[in-house]
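[DERIVE STRUCTURE TOKENS]
===
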Amino acid sequence: MVGIDTNVLVRYLTQDDPKQSAVATRFIEGRLSTENPGFVSTITLCEIAWVLAESYGADRKRIRQIIEGLLATKQLVIERSELVWKSLRAWEGVPADFSDALIGQLAIAHGAEKTVTFDRTATKLPGFELLA
């Protein structure tokens, strides 16, 4: 298994840089397999969601499709994939960021009763409480 950084996945997903996108594509499609998968951390997923929204104008539907696609790819191992799926469900219809949904699900999985935040939008997610 080999870890994959955000920038490699973004180049692969967006195909926006001819040279780096070609290298990323050769690596992902040519070197990764179910026997030798790539590892994608939860941090990387948060970064991907942020970069796609902020730099590429991707909407929530597109970000969700991309994350679901990564989860379904047999050549990738997604850290805590079960929590990523729960995060996607929690994120649906809530104006919070995907990263907040994942932070909340990770906290719950580690035994937290709640996640406190100053972000009013994040409080729309299950398990969040506004710290006042």
